[in-house]
Design brief:
Layout: E1 2-6, H1 18-23, H2 26-32, E2 36-42, H3 45-51, E3 56-65, E4 68-79, E5 82-88, H4 90-93, H5 104-122, E6 128-132, H6 139-145, H7 151-154, E7 157-162, E8 170-171, H8 174-180, H9 185-188, E9 193-194, E10 197-199, H10 200-207, E11 210-213, H11 216-221, H12 232-237, E12 242-244, H13 271-286, E13 295-300, H14 309-313, H15 316-320, E14 324-329, H16 334-346, E15 351-354, H17 359-368, E16 371-374, H18 384-390, E17 394-398, H19 401-406, E18 420-422, H20 427-443, H21 445-457, H22 463-477
Bound molecules: adenosine-5'-diphosphate and alpha-D-glucopyranose.
Alpha-D-glucopyranose binds near residues 18, 19, 247 and 379.
C-alpha cells in the first residue's frame, strides 16, 4: 500500500508540537508493517539550517497557483525507511516561524497545490493521501476537483486527521479561485464556506473519505458544541466516517534505557537509582536545591489556555506552600509566561521557569521529575503524558480527550493505575489532586512504586494504533 502523508511539520526535521511527533513516528511503523509510506513538508529555514546536507535536490517545476504560476523545487530526504519530500519556495517558507503570518492562507494553498503537482513530477501515485490539520485540509477537494480530470488523481482515497480542531485555517474567500483554483461553486453551496470566508479544515471534513482524530474520547467530544469549535454540525453529518485512534509515541527516540540526553540511563529494573541521578542533575542544572527526598513536578508545554496553565498560575502560592519543587519549560501566551517568571522570582531554589523550546531539557525533565503536570482544558490526545509514563514520571491530568484514554487514575484499593486524574476547572480542583499525589508520594511508597511500574509497562507504542490506521486504509481502498 502506498501512502503519502501531507503535514505542516514532522520529526526529525521540524517540530513545534505533537503533530511533528506523530508525523515522525507513525509512518516509520507503517513502513515496518510493509507500506510504502512517504511524507511531504514545506522546506522551512529550520530544515535548511539543520538538514540541508542530507537532502537531494530533485528538480523544479512550475506550480499552477490559481491565476499565476510559481516555481517549486522538490527535495528528498530519508529517515528510518520513510522518504521525506520537501517543497522549496523561498518567499513562503524561509521565515523565522512555521505559522502565524498574515499570508498563511496563501502559503499553505501553495504548499498543497505543489504537493499534488509533485505526484506527477515524481510519477508516484499513492493509494491514500493522509492529510493532517488545517495546513493540508484542501487536499481532498483539490485532488478531486482541480486535478480530477486525471484519473490517477481521481483514484486516490483521502484520510484526514484532526489533531486540534481549534486551528482551522479560516481565510478570505479570495483564495479559493485566485490561489487554489477552485470554483466558487463550493463556496456558494456551503461546502468550504465558514462565516464569510473559507475554511481549510471544514473542506477536509466535507470531502475526505474518512476522518480521524487522535483519541476516541476527543472523537466523541467534538460532536458537542462545547468542544466542536463550530464544526460540530459538519462532524455530526460525517459521524459514520469519523473515528478516534489514539496516538503512540516514538519508542526509539523516547527510551530511558538508550536516551543519550540523560545523566543516567535506566529501565524498570533500576529506575530508582536512574531517576535519582537524573533528578540530581536536573536540580543542579537549573539551580534548584539538590534534594533527593523532595517531590519534583515537571511541565513541558505550549503555555496556552488549552493547556490549563492558568489553573496552575492562579493557585501558585497555595501550591508552593507544599513540600515540592516545580520545573516549567515552554513558551506561549504573555500572561502565562509572566506569571511563571514571577513565580520563579518568588520561590527561588524551588521553582524554575525556562522560557524557550529545548529538546535536551525536555528529556531531562521527563526523566528527572517524579510527576508530570498536564491539566489541559481540552486535549485531542497529548504526547507528553505518554512520554512521562515511559520515563516512570507519573502524569497528573485533567480528565478530557486523549488524557482520559491514556491515563488510568490510581485506585489505592486495587493498586491499579498509571497516573492521576481530576475533574473540574479550578485551581482548587487541581490542588485537591496534588494533595492526594503528595500523600501517595510521601506516605505510600509501595503504592507509588506500583504506579511507576505500571506506567513504565504501559504500551505507548504505535503498534496497535498503526494497525487501526491500516485497517481504515484497507476499508477504503477495497482490500
Ligand atoms: P501539543 O501538540 O498540543 O502542543 P502534545 O502533548 O501532543 O501537545 O505534544 C507536545 C510535544 O512537544 C511533546 O513532544 C513535548 O515534549 C514537546 N514540547 C512542548 N513544548 C516544548 C518545549 N518548550 N521544549 C521542548 N519540547 C517541547
Ligand atoms: C495536537 C493536539 C495534541 C495531540 C497532537 C498530536 O497538537 O493538541 O493533543 O497530541 O496534536 O496528535
Amino acid at each position: 500500500m502506498k501512502i503519502l502523508f501531507v503535514a505542516g511539520e514532522g520529526l526529525p526535521f521540524v517540530k513545534t508540537g505533537g503533530l511533528a511527533d506523530v508525523i515522525g513516528s507513525l509512518p516509520k511503523v507503517l513502513v515496518k508493517k510493509g507500506c510504502d509510506c512517504r511524507v511531504v513538508l514545506p522546506l522551512y529555514s529550520h530544515v535548511i539550517m539543520d538538514h540541508y546536507n542530507e537532502l537531494a535536490r530533485l528538480g523544479t517545476m512550475s506550480v499552477r497557483f490559481g491565476n499565476a504560476e510559481q516555481p517549486a523545487t522538490f527535495y528528498r530526504g530519508e529517515d528510518s525507511g520513510v522518504t521525506y519530500y520537501f517543497i522549496e519556495h523561498q518567499g513562503f517558507f524561509e521565515r523565522d516561524s512555521l505559522y502565524g503570518y498574515y499570508d498563511d492562507g496563501e502559503r499553505f494553498a501553495f504548499f498543497q497545490r505543489a504537493a499534488l503537482d509533485m505526484l506527477s513530477f515524481l510519477d508516484w501515485w499513492p493509494d491514500i493521501i493522509h492529510s493532517n490539520d488545517w495546513q493540508s485540509g484542501m487536499i481532498p477537494l483539490l485532488a478531486r476537483n482541480v486535478y480530477g480530470g486525471d484519473e490517477r488523481y481521481r483514484n486516490i482515497k483521502h484520510v484526514y486527521t484532526i489533531h486540534n480542531l481549534a486551528f482551522q485555517g479560516n481565510f478570505s474567500k479570495d483564495l479559493l479561485w485566485s490561489r487554489l483554483g477552485i470554483d466558487d461553486y463550493y463556496y456558494n453551496n456551503g461546502a468550504v464556506r465558514f462565516d464569510d470566508g473559507i475554511s481549510f479544515m471544514k473542506s477536509a471534513l466535507v470531502f475526505a473519505d474518512k476522518i480521524t482524530t487522535v483519541s476516541p474520547t476527543y472523537a466523541r467530544e467534538i460532536l458537542t458544541p462545547g468542544f466542536g469549535e463550530r464544526m460540530n454540525e459538519v462532524l455530526k453529518y460525517r459521524q459514520e466516517d469519523l473515528c478516534g485512534i489514539v496516538n503512540g509515541i516514538d519508542t526509539d527516540n523516547w527510551n530511558p534505557l538508550s536516551d543519550l540526553r540523560l545523566a543516567k540511563n535506566y529501565s524498570l529494573r533500576n529506575y530508582v537509582s536512574g531517576k535519582r541521578e537524573n533528578k540530581k542533575k536536573l536540580q543542579e542544572m537549573l539551580g534548584l536545591e539538590v534534594r533527593s527526598d523532595v517531590m519534583v513536578i515537571g511541565l513541558v508545554s505550549r503555555l496556552t489556555g488549552q493547556k490549563g496553565v492558568y489553573m496552575i498560575t492562579s493557585g501558585m502560592h497555595e501550591m508552593m506552600r507544599r513540600n515540592l519543587q516545580f520545573v516549567v519549560l515552554g513558551t506561549g501566551e504573555r500572561a502565562a509566561e509572566d506569571a511563571f517568571r514571577s513565580m520563579e522570582n518568588m520561590y527561588q531554589g524551588r521553582m524554575v521557569y525556562y522560557s524557550g523550546y529545548n529538546e535536551d531539557l525536555a528529556h531531562m525533565i521527563y526523566a528527572g521529575c517524579d510527576v508530570f503536570l498536564m491539566p489541559s482544558m481540552y486535549e485531542p490526545c497529548g504526547i507528553s503524558q505518554m512520554i512521562s509514563q515511559r520515563y516512570g514520571t507519573l502524569p497528573v491530568v485533567r480528565e478530557t480527550g486523549g488524557l482520559s484514554d491514556t491515563v488510568m487514575p490510581y485506585n489505592e484499593y486495587t493498586g491499579e493505575g498509571n497516573g492521576f486524574s481530576f475533574h473540574g476547572e479550578s485551581s482548587g480542583n487541581l490542588m485537591d489532586v496534588l494533595d492526594y499525589v503528595l500523600r501517595t508520594y510521601y506516605d505510600n511508597p509501595a503504592g507509588w512504586r506500583g504506579l511507576v511500574h505500571s506506567a513504565m509497562k504501559t504500551d505507548v507504542s504505535w503498534n496497535r494504533s498503526a494497525d487501526a490506521y491500516l485497517a481504515l486504509y484497507n476499508s477504503i481502498i477495497g482490500n
